[in-house]
Amino acid sequence: MVFFMDPAFFLKRTFMILVALLLLTAATISAALIHNGPVEHNFASQDPVIHEVPVRDPALKDRGAIMPFSIDGLSDTDLKGKTRLVVLFASWCTPCVKEHPVLMELSKSVPVYGIDVTDKPENVDAYLKRMGNPFAKVGHDDSGDVSVSWGADGLPTSYIVNADGHIVWRHDGPLDHDEAQNVVIPLMKQLQ
Length: 192
Hints:
The chain is α/β, with parallel strands linked by helices. The protein folds into 2 domains: 1-36; 49-190, Glutaredoxin (3-Layer(aba) Sandwich). It has helices spanning 7-36, 94-106, 121-131, 145-149, 177-190; strands at 70-71, 74-75, 84-89, 112-117, 138-141, 157-161, 167-172. The strands form 2 sheets. Strands 5-4-3-6-7 form a 5-stranded mixed β-sheet.
């Protein structure tokens, strides 16, 4: 017995499959944009990555000197002479907003410096006025070149920079209260 498919049914089914694929593609793209935020700099396009380390490493280890830099509000010389926590962040970064109260608390115990990545200074100023400013100094990395030279894959990324200007610890993603109290503060006290 031979079955013949009705051409109208075939076209309807094909159309529904195409619509489903289109919706799935749109949902995937939307989810990626929502998860990652606006993409204003392609971190992956730069070579070489200088500081490759595990995402969460609770130990101090010399990962090399920071590259000389000078951006609006901050330079490499500002990060020498005393141990500092340096946080790469942006006002548009949802995980950075989540981390902000932890930085406010940390700034009461340790010197915290910020590098604002691919953001508009007026947006950062408004963000810090609204959320509070935990930073002793904030540099504006408009191009994202400084964050790339430090090996950042995303935001926020936190570093402990020792008095000699060497990165000795790195943390990818937002710090939480426990990590701040049980990792960051003890490591920084070891370096004093």
